[in-house]
């Protein structure tokens, strides 16, 4: 299982509660989570545009369903726990969470939110 990031991946789901997301197909001009590859993980955001509930995490994609398993929650509107989504359509998309970001500072040092990486 590899961590895979792809651009412009977004689908909808009508999954309720804290269950894994059953994906309902790509949003217009986006690609589906199948771009991630069966059994691979990715960073995701799920958002309910009607209620404002959200969740950022690491999910595992499966072609069965197809589904995105909510493997690890990194942050959410539910205090960092699984978000209990209401009935309706939610958006689920690949994202790069700032808490996981690695970037280069102006000084040239590589920076990780939790510390500095020497290169």
Overview in brief:
With 119 residues, this protein is mainly β.
Strand order of the largest sheet: 1-2-5-4-3-6
How confident is the prediction overall: mean pLDDT? 92
The fraction of residues assigned to DSSP E strands is 35-45%
Q: Detail the poorly predicted runs.
A: none
**Span between termini:** 27 Å
- Encode the helix/strand succession as letters: EEEEEEEEE
Question: From the helix content, strand content and strand pairing, which structural class follows?
Answer: mainly beta
- Helix content, binned percent: under 10%
Detailed description of the structure:
It is built from no helices and nine strands. The protein is mainly β and 119 residues long. It has strands at residues 10-13, 21-26, 41-47, 54-62, 67-76, 90-94, 102-104, 110-112, 115-117. 0% of the residues lie in helices and 42% in strands. The protein is globular.
Helix/strand layout:
Blueprint: E1 10-13, E2 21-26, E3 41-47, E4 54-62, E5 67-76, E6 90-94, E7 102-104, E8 110-112, E9 115-117
Antiparallel strand pairs: 1-2, 1-6, 2-5, 3-4, 3-6, 4-5, 7-8, 8-9
Summarize this structure as a short list of keywords or feature phrases.
mainly beta, 119 residues, three-stranded antiparallel beta sheet
């Amino acid at each position: 299982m590899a961590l895979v990031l792809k651009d412009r991946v977004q689908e909808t789901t009508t999954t309720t509660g804290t269950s894994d997301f059953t994906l309902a197909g790509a949003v217009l001009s986006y690609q589906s989570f199948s771009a991630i590859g069966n059994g691979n993980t990715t960073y995701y955001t799920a958002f309910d545009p009607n209620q404002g509930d959200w969740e950022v995490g690491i999910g595992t994609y499966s072609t069965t369903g197809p589904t995105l398993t909510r493997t690890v929650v990194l942050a959410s509107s539910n205090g960092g726990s699984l978000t209990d989504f209401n009935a309706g359509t939610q958006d689920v998309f690949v994202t790069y969470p700032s808490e996981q970001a690695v970037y280069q500072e102006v000084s040239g040092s590589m920076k990780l939110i939790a510390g500095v990486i020497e290169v």
